[in-house]
Structures are given as C-alpha cells and as structure tokens.
Design brief:
Radius of gyration of chain B: 22 Å
Oligomer: heterodimer
Radius of gyration of chain A: 17 Å
CATH topology of chain B: MetI-like fold
CATH superfamily of chain B: MetI-like
Number of helices of chain B: 12
Number of helices of chain A: 6
Shape of chain A: globular
Order of helices and strands of chain B: HHHHHHHHHHHH
Shape of chain B: globular
CATH architecture of chain B: Orthogonal Bundle
CATH topology of one domain in chain A: Rossmann fold
Strand content of chain A: 15-25%
Number of strands of chain B: 0
Strand content of chain B: under 5%
Largest interface: A-B, 26 and 18 residues
Order of helices and strands of chain A: EEEHEEHHHEHEHEE
Strand order of the largest sheet of chain A: 5-6-7-3-8-9
CATH class of chain B: Mainly Alpha
Distance between the termini of chain B: 29 Å
Amino acid sequence: MLELAIDGQGAGHPILGRLEARIHPGDRICLLGSSGVGKTTLLNAIAGLDRSMPASMIRRQAGLRIGYLFQEHRLLPWRTLRQNLALVGAAPARIDALLAQVGLQGCADKLPDQLSLGMARRAALARCLAVEPDLLLLDEPFASLDAPRVQELRALIAAVLDARPGMAMLCVTHDPRDAEALANRRWQLVGKPAALVEVRTEAGDPVRDAG
Amino acid sequence: MSATRWASWVALPLTLALWAGLAAGLNTPLLPGPAQVLEVGWQILASGELAQHLGATLRRVAIAFALAMTLGTLLGLGMGRSRLFNAFCDPLLVLFLNLPALVTIILLYVWFGLVEAAAVLAVVVNKVPNVAVTLREGARALDPRLEQMADVYGFGRWRRLVHVWLPQLFPYWMAATRSGLALIWKIVLVVELLGRSDGVGFQLHMAFQVFDVAAILAWSLAFIAVVQAIEWLVLQPVERRATRWREAGVAHA
C-alpha cells in the first residue's frame, strides 16, 4: 500500500538518508530510534507533510487514507469533539460510537481543553479512526502518560488494531515494550543522515521483508 | 466596592463638574455649559435633524467599514501567507499607511467630484492598510501544527478558512474592528465637512461657520454615544460568544 524509495541525500533532504521499505495492509510496525534521529520527520514525509521530500520517493496506493495521531492532540480547541470529528468527515450517526470506542462516551459536546491529556489523546485517536484509515500513523502515543494510562492506551490501541485487520500501523516509540505489545515488525532509524533498518525479533523472522 | 471600581467613576463626573464650573465662571458663548449643550441636543433630536444626519454618517461608516474590513482582511491574509505577494505589496502598504487621510480625501474629490462614491472610497483607502497590517500579523501567527492537521485530513479551502483560520484570526480581526470604527468615523466626519451636504461632519461645518460651540459639542457627544453603544451592544457580545472556548482550559485546571 505504501513504498518508500527515499534517497534523502540525493534530494538534498536535511535529515533523512537512504530508506527503502514497504508497508503492506495489516502490518503493525514500531519505529524505534534515538531522539532527534528523524522519526517524526519520516512520519511527516509518509503523511505527505514534508515539502522538501520529492513526491516520487514515497509511492502511495491510490486513495490511501491516512489517520495521523500527532504528539499533541491537535484538535481544534474552539470546536467540540463532535464538531472535530465531523470536520474530518465522520458521519453524525457514527460520532458517538467512535468516541465510545476510545472510552469517551458522553464527552461528544466537550471542548478539547476540558479533557485531560490522556482523554484528549484518545479523542485525537477517535478522529484518526473517523477517516477509516488504511494506514494509522502514531507519533509517541504514550509520551507524558503515567504507567496505568500507558497500559490503558496500549490495550485500547491493540483492540483498535484487532478490530481492523486490514489496517496498517506505523508507531513511533522509544520503548521496546510498545513494540512487543503492538508490533509484528520493527524498524530502527539510525545514523546521520538517517537510514532504516528492519530489526529481526527473537521470535523469528519478521512477517515480511523490508525490501 | 474596591478602589479600582471606584476610580473609573471619578474622572468623567469630575470633568463634567469642572466644565460646568468653568462655563459658569467665564460666562461666554464660546464655552456653553453642559445644560446648554443638552438643550441643543434635545432640540436637534426633537426636530429630526439628529436622526437624519446621524443616519447619513452611520450609513457611510457602515459601508466604508464593511468594504475596508473585507479588502483589508483579504490583503492581510494574502500577505501573511505568501512571501512573494508580501514582497510585492509591502512598499505600497507603507506608502498608503503614511499617506495623510486629508490628501486622499482631497485627491478623490478633485478627481471624481464631490460625490458619495468618492467620499466612501476615500475612507476605505485610508482604512484598508491598517486592517491589512493587523491581519497580516494574524496570518503569520497561524499555528503550523494545525495547518499540518488540516493538510493530513484534507481540509478544503473553505473548511480551513472557517474552522482553522478564522478562530485564530478573531483577536486580530477584533483589534482591527475596534481601531477601525474609531478611525473610520473620524475620517467620515472630515469627508463630510469637506464635500457633503448631510451628515454629522456637515453639521459641524455649519456650526463652525457661526462659532456655535453648543451645537458642535452636542453633535460630537451624540456621535460618541452611538459609537459607545455599538461597542456595548454589538462588539462585546460578539467577542464574548467567540472567545467562550478559551475559558474551557481554565475551568478544567
């Protein structure tokens, strides 16, 4: 569904180097790497937000729908959750169900700033799901949460993935436990300019090859 | 009641008392007292003059304001979002910002004659650069993170404008509106004084011819009252409505 053929140096990209990989339907990939290596940059490039990345280096299947959970919730603070979800195209009848799915039943008419950090992140996750994504991008979804909240959100994301077997996920994290709980593939971003390495897990080969 | 609340009720009555005392002491037609001004005000109200001329002035203010805000907002947004457009327009903006209102008014009257269109256009030309400069700052301050969000979720032009940009631009737009109303009605009076035969400015002109200070003060105070009423009855309620979401975070914390 998505093919990376990035030659960042050739394109004069400031951070990314040579990255070649494919994402297939149902892939659950965790992207690990030290901070500042370019994980968010890669996510932005995949989402089509990186203007310095030539379009030909990221080949997306036609009509690919992407849901992107940014590090901050990035909900419109002047719109209620219901309006925020409706603005990305959620049918009015589905909004309550989407919010209930992330444990926010009864919060549809709240403003984002009335929610705690964890709730706002789950609301943003509901917005990702509202577009019925083929590819779900998660940027440090567990950052700044306390341990019980991390457990909760991990379980929630696992449930979301189980309910959508065809959806692919690419999750930026620095905690290998996240990868254990959620991923069937691991990517590691290393070096400067950053290159992508597919990590083989102890359990055996990754489900698919990186190339 | 706290001292700050008291303080705001001191200056105006004090000025009024000073004015009344000074007028009584000097006893000259060049400084009528508050009672005399009030009487003139009552007369022009009863005769229907106030409604007629105030109406003419307010109509010009409203048209000029609507045009200036629309054009200035578009110009400011364009300049704030596009460096090329900004580089192109900026020298012109500086030129028009520093062009005295009087020059615009005189030139437009000379070129187009003493007609309504020239009068309103002169006001618009004076105000557009101020609106553009304020809204340009607003456009530059738009949150890039929300822009990325809107990009990812495929927001169209209209949806982005209404739901992402306008709420962020609102404080800038409000600032432009406030300073705009204050500026526009003052320019409208000059425009009327120089080349119209109705409106508050025209009445001030007539009063100036015969040194009728009571009339000058009565017309001015009537207009100030109307502008203040607009602030209380229109601007403040609109502002309260539009910024309600800001209280959400505070209430939660």
